């Protein structure tokens, strides 16, 4: 290479001396400050730009303000200039700038010039934006207060009369003092023209003080404009010192009122141009889920003879407008009943209330969507009859003329001819009866035959036989198999729905088959699972359906608008079939309920069978637990108080029934059937908040109460710490109170309740907590958000701000949560709260059928107060009768009514059994002897108490407790017997894979990593079970894997991860859907396994865990965790190779790649797992 081609250096080399003498370059701190990005799991879902307050004000300052940018960049941050130090005020301003987050969305507000003109007029001063402020802190304080008042006035000026701006600075203000204003402490006039302060707004006070005026002074002449834009356009959040990444919203539109950016963007794509304004509230089919809860707990329809009437109810539109042959004069005309039924099927085409474009009136229904069983009042208002009488004027849309009217008329005919009762008897016979009994029952007329028309029913012979005695060992045996229910519903659909609705030829067969599969899937869903409208239509061929084709356009290629119109009409038809035909069909023929032992599985009882087993149980309750109240007396009581009445239902429990009261249901306002009252639990919310406050202030008054299963470990750990090191022999004694809630004496409970509150008055306030459900960071539709309102009580003299309460008590265990409080605060007198609770306990009215009953013993089950009242009541029992257990050698645990005593004194355990089995009439307490259990031989009152075998672990509240080491593990035997399938709730509609991932990850913190496990080992890596250890305690929580004993040489000992079992059941549930998304299914599984590994390792090695538990050591590397998890997953999934081929191949590739790492000793890992004791494998 010649010298000409060699590049020459652009600068000469400097000597060492030159380098040392030359001053270092200054870094531009302003630009550096703006480079930092703020990432928050929740805020990124709602805001397009997130930055600190320091970054925000620097970006808003003009480029010419170099000195101010430099000052704001350096204030309260980093090293100070020589011979100077930051003052406390500067540090406070720096903390404000760095701990405050400003979030922005795309918005269209006032123009900059117009807003500034309004400010000039409001402040009554000239335009001084070009003048540097020179009046110091006092002037900045005044103008900051004026700016906040102006923002409140500006936001109110945008709203029409009677509306309230959805802005936190306007909370507590009103345009005029109306009737609700008297609820506040006072209604005061302030400096804001036309606006009244009803409740004090703490945010306004914070922005007027607390270093915000100093910030305004720092901003100089541009400060007013920047501050106004900040408060009007953007949202302001303050960092909460407690918890992890929690925030308090200080200003802006409440985040609970916003829609995620992805939702806003998708709506903008679907509804472009001018049509967006007209259809902005339209719901997409994927957002419309059927309200399956309507088919639960339905009452049977009875005829005049008091027998169950099968088929659709008499109020159904097909029964109210049956088919009538037209006379000769009416031939060729349009049948009015056909048009009326079409209004129920296609309400959107007639301009009626519909599920797609109409808002749900929350004052009339508490359900997600409106109930369209009866539309007569709406139709009468929409199409009024002429003044002179005659037929109503109804315009039939062009799309619904011709073929559609004939199909609807055919629907009337086929419904009239359908033999509902005979088809029910054929597909769903009474369980537990022989064929001869079924025939004799049908012949006797006990089951009403077919037709729902009154004329046909009159021809039937009166019944002469009653329901035969049913033979069963469990009430569940009397339920009709869900496959039979599905077959019955499909047969009815085929019989009643005209085939022409599905098209012709091959299209008809395809669409009909798709629809029946969706019906089958809908009936098989579990308790809280749902199906969306988009899922029903998926796979159907809509273009080839003739009745959807416009007149004279058959066979032609359809335009985009025509295709959308066809889908719109067909969606209405499908929604009607599920919401207004299938669900009423199930309601009118079956009592659908869950059981106490099968979690979310639903059982379908024929109404006649259910009445046969439920009526005796209900009669017993009316005699022993309730007393009848005359209707007029009950109505007088209801009108004199806010509390309404509750409803009672029965839950199958083995061979008996368990009464369940629904106190969360909102009842109709007396005298007005269009407005719903608050539920009983809502009205009792203030009392519940007061009891929670008293619990936190005086926890000793609750005795040995446990408030969750997770409290058991802490109590056992503290107990064993108090005993000291050494060997101890523990005696376990467990008793269960019989019908605790139903046997508590009401007078004793009310007397005890009066001694609980220690304040004469309480202040109650509400706040909402918004947080993502996803445990790991992410974005997109998979990150779901929950919004929960909470009521918090505090003493009337407690002057703490809401932010102080958050940091002291509310945010300790929260993560990525945004707190938003309400300015509305109400004072409650203790006497009023006690009177309300006394009426709730002593005058609990229950409506059964058309009669009212009063609960004469016990406290209301299902009440928001029931658990807390029970804890206080039995804590009083402990103080008066079990005081001898208040010693260091005894640990008494009680979860509601389940007592467990762990002691080293055998005599105390025997005395405990003696007192509890004797009973305490004053407390209405009797124990269930069959559920008592001990780990030593014992005879109480001549009866042997059940004894645990030597070496077995003691069961308590779903946990195993080792009788020697007090190690705690989760029970898995019951879950194995009942099947994990019944304990799942699978998302089938919008994001099934994302929700599966979330449900796998979410249980990790509370169930696996809540407590640090220590198994009496020194942390050696060859013992896998000692990888998670607490050097100070010998109590272990064995919940790392849900292991099962396995044979020699098998990896199944650790391969049975519980989340893999959940995944198998979920995969089986998703089989009808995954054929459309095979690649998505494999990706979701791979992503879920990788995320499970990442989250597990992060939690095991987190700094928080090491700080919380000194001596904690995690002696396993991430590669080892990944290898063990992947081999475990493969061992389970390989049994289902046909469904998991791609996932298994991916797992094999990953395990081979991990096995090649030098630091990974696979054989040692396998040996370590095999050394796990059998009792630690589940």
From TrEMBL:
It is found in: Mitochondrion; Nucleus; Chromosome, Telomere. SMART domains: Telomerase_RBD. Keywords: Chromosome, Magnesium, Metal-binding, Mitochondrion, Nucleotidyltransferase, Nucleus, RNA-directed DNA polymerase, Telomere, Transferase. It catalyses: DNA(n) + a 2'-deoxyribonucleoside 5'-triphosphate = DNA(n+1) + diphosphate. InterPro entries: DNA/RNA_pol_sf (IPR043502), RT_dom (IPR000477), Telomerase_RBD (IPR021891), Telomerase_RT (IPR003545). It holds the Pfam family Telomerase_RBD. Its main location: mitochondrion. Residues 632-961 form the Reverse transcriptase domain. Residues 1-31, 432-467 are annotated as: Disordered. Its EC number is 2.7.7.49. The keyword Nucleus applies. One of its GO terms (molecular function) is telomerase RNA binding. GO terms for biological process: telomere maintenance via telomerase. GO terms for cellular component: chromosome, telomeric region; mitochondrion; telomerase catalytic core complex. Telomerase is a ribonucleoprotein enzyme essential for the replication of chromosome termini in most eukaryotes. It elongates telomeres. It is a reverse transcriptase that adds simple sequence repeats to chromosome ends by copying a template sequence within the RNA component of the enzyme. Belongs to the reverse transcriptase family. Telomerase subfamily. This is Telomerase reverse transcriptase. It comes from Madurella mycetomatis. The lineage of its organism: Eukaryota, Fungi, Dikarya, Ascomycota, Pezizomycotina.
């Amino acid at each position: 290479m010649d010298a000409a081609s060699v590049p020459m250096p652009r600068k000469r080399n400097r000597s060492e001396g030159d380098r040392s003498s030359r001053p270092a370059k200054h870094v531009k701190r302003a630009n550096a400050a703006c480079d930092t990005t703020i990432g928050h799991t929740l805020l990124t879902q709602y805001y397009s730009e997130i930055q600190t307050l320091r970054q925000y004000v620097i970006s808003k300052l003009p480029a010419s303000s170099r000195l101010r940018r430099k000052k704001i960049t350096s204030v309260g941050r980093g090293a100070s200039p020589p011979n100077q130090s930051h003052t406390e005020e500067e540090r406070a301003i720096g903390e404000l700038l760095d701990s405050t987050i400003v979030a922005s969305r795309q918005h269209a507000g006032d123009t900059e010039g117009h807003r500034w003109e309004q400010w000039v007029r409001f402040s009554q001063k000239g335009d001084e934006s070009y003048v540097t402020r020179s009046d110091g802190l006092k002037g900045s304080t005044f103008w900051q207060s004026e700016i906040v008042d102006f923002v409140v006035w500006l936001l109110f000026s945008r709203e029409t009369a009677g509306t309230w701006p959805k802005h936190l600075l306007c909370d507590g203000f009103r345009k005029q003092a109306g009737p609700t204003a008297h609820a506040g402490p006072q209604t005061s006039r302030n400096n804001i023209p036309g606006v009244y302060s009803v409740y004090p707004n703490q945010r306004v006070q914070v922005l007027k003080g607390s270093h915000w005026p100093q910030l305004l002074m720092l901003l100089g002449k541009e400060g007013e404009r920047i501050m106004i834009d900040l408060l009007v356009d953007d949202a302001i959040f303050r960092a909460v010192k407690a918890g992890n990444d929690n925030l308090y919203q200080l200003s802006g539109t409440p985040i609970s009122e916003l829609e995620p950016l992805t939702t806003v963007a998708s709506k903008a794509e679907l509804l472009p141009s001018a049509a967006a304004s007209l259809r902005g509230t339209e719901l997409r089919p994927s957002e419309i889920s059927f309200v399956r809860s309507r088919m639960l707990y339905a009452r049977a329809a009875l005829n005049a003879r008091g027998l169950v009437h099968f088929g659709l109810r008499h109020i159904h539109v097909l029964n109210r407008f049956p088919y009538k042959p037209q006379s000769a004069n009416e031939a060729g005309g349009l049948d009015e009943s056909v048009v009326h039924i079409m209004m129920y099927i296609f309400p959107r085409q007639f301009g009626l209330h519909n599920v797609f474009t109409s808002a749900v009136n929350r004052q009339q229904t508490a359900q997600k969507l409106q109930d369209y069983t009866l539309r007569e009042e709406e139709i009468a208002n929409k199409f009024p009859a002429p003044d002179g009488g005659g037929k109503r004027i109804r315009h039939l849309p062009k799309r619904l003329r011709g073929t559609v009217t004939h199909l609807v008329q055919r629907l009337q005919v086929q419904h009239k001819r359908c033999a509902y009762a005979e088809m029910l008897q054929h597909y769903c016979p009474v369980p537990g009866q022989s064929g001869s009994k079924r025939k004799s029952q049908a012949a006797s007329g006990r089951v009403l035959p077919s037709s729902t028309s009154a004329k046909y029913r009159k021809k039937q012979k009166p019944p002469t036989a009653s329901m035969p005695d049913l033979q069963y060992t469990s009430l569940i045996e009397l339920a009709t198999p869900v496959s039979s229910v599905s077959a019955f519903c499909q047969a009815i659909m085929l019989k009643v729905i005209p085939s022409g609705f599905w098209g012709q030829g091959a299209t008809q067969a395809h669409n009909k088959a798709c629809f029946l599969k969706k019906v089958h899937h809908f009936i098989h869903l579990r308790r809280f699972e749902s199906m969306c409208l988009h899922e029903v239509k998926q796979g159907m061929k809509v273009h080839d359906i003739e009745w959807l084709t416009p007149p004279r356009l058959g066979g032609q290629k359809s335009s985009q608008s025509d295709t959308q119109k066809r889908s719109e009409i067909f969606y209405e038809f499908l929604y009607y079939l599920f919401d207004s035909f299938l669900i009423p069909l199930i309601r009118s023929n079956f009592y659908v309920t869950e059981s106490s032992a099968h979690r979310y599985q639903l059982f379908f009882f024929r109404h006649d069978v259910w009445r046969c087993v439920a009526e005796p149980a209900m009669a017993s309750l009316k005699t022993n637990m309730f007393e009848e109240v005359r209707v007029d007396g009950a109505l007088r009581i209801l009108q004199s108080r806010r509390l309404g009445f509750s409803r009672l239902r029965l839950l199958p429990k083995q061979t008996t029934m368990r009464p369940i009261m629904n106190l969360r249901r909102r009842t109709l306002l007396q005298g007005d059937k269009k407005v719903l009252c608050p539920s009983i639990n809502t009205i009792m919310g203030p009392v519940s908040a007061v009891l929670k406050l008293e619990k936190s202030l005086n926890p000793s008054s609750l005795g040995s109460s446990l408030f969750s299963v997770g409290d058991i470990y802490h109590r056992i750990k503290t107990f064993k710490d108090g005993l000291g090191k050494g060997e101890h022999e523990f005696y376990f004694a467990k008793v269960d109170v019989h019908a605790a809630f139903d046997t508590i004496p009401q007078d004793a409970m009310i007397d005890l309740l009066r001694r609980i509150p220690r304040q004469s008055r309480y202040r109650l306030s509400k706040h909402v907590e918004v947080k993502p459900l996803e445990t790991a960071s992410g974005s997109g539709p998979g990150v779901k958000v929950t919004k929960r309102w909470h009521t918090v009580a505090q003493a009337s003299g407690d002057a703490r701000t809401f932010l102080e309460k958050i940091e002291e008590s509310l945010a300790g265990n929260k993560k990525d949560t945004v707190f938003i409080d309400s300015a509305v605060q109400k004072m409650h007198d203790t006497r009023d709260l006690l009177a309300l609770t006394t009426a709730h306990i002593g005058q609990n009215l229950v409506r059964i059928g058309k009669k009212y009953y009063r609960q004469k013993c016990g406290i209301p089950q299902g009440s928001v107060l029931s658990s807390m009242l029970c804890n206080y009541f039995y804590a009083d029992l402990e103080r008066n009768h079990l005081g001898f257990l208040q010693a260091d050698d005894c640990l008494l645990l009680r979860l509601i009514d389940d007592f467990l005593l762990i002691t080293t004194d055998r005599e105390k355990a025997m005395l405990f059994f003696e007192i509890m089995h004797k009973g305490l009439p004053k407390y209405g307490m009797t124990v269930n002897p069959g559920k008592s259990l001990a780990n030593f031989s014992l005879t109480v009152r001549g009866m042997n108490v059940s004894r645990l075998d030597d070496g077995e672990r003691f069961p308590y509240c779903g946990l195993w407790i080792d009788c020697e080491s007090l190690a705690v593990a989760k029970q898995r035997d019951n879950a194995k017997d009942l099947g994990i399938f019944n304990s799942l709730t699978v998302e089938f509609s919008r994001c099934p894979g994302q929700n599966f991932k979330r449900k796998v990850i979410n249980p990790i913190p509370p169930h696996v990593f809540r407590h640090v496990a220590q198994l009496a080992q020194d942390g050696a890596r060859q013992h896998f079970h000692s990888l998670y250890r607490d050097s100070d305690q010998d109590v272990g929580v064995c919940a790392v894997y849900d292991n099962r004993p396995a044979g020699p040489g098998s990896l199944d000992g650790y391969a049975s991860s519980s989340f893999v079992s959940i995944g198998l059941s979920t995969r089986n549930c998703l089989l009808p859907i995954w054929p459309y998304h095979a690649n998505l299914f494999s990706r979701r599984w791979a992503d879920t396994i990788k995320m499970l590994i990442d989250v597990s390792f992060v939690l095991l090695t987190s700094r928080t865990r090491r700080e919380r538990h000194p001596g904690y050591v995690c002696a396993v590397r991430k590669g080892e965790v990944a290898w063990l998890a992947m081999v475990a997953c493969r061992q389970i999934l390989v049994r289902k190779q046909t469904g998991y081929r791609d996932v298994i191949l991916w797992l094999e590739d990953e395990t081979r790649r991990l096995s090649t790492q030098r630091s990974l000793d696979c054989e040692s890992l396998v040996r370590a797992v095999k050394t796990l004791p059998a009792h630690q494998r589940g």
